[in-house]
Amino acid sequence: MSGDFYSAIEERRSIYGITDEFVISDERIEEIVQLAVANTPSAFNSQTGRLVVLLGNSNKDFWQVIFESIKEGLAEEHIEKNKRKFNAFASGYGTVLFFEDYEVVASMQEKFPSFHEQFTEWSHQSSGILQYLVWTSLEYEGFGASLQHYIPTFSSEICQQWGIQKGWKLIAQLPFGKPTVAPREKEIQSLDLRIIIVK
């Protein structure tokens, strides 16, 4: 099991070429995200992470929402390029939306005022752990995925349809699907520059 764990860490990469072909069941996907959410650490056990998993047409709808929300600010020559990129994400099996519940963050700030400034940062740290757990787990099961950071404005209709609560703040998205390409070669900076061990 330990070998599988370390292999999963090494093999988790950004993969952009994905399709909606079957890899594992929707029930298994649900098990994975439940396991990740239940076991992600958070400051003072605040449990601020929230997930929405979009499959099928909901996945396609989401990336159309993203495209429509950003194209107004794009130069003409960039619109088609971005449309191709979002179409590639939409062609995957699904997308995991990562939110943080800022109503919970605010309640923790009120309960522990001496840590008021830190709770927002701690919330994002916990979200990063959750994103990594879900990403690595899905890739371990055979999916390819990449982490994205687009912040659209959701209509009240979409919020109601997808169960998005008022206090939730979108942090990141993870489009995933059956990989069609190998990951790009990754350059790893010298670890001697990044790690100090003191005995």
From TrEMBL:
InterPro entries: Frm2/Hbn1, Nitroreductase, Nitroreductase-like. It is found in: Cytoplasm. SUPFAM superfamilies: FMN-dependent nitroreductase-like (SSF55469). The keyword Glycoprotein does not apply. GO terms for cellular component: cytoplasm. Its main location: cytoplasm. The keyword Oxidoreductase applies. Keywords: Cytoplasm, Oxidoreductase. Residues 9-178 form the Nitroreductase domain. GO terms for molecular function: oxidoreductase activity. GO terms for biological process: cellular response to oxidative stress. This is Putative nitroreductase family protein.
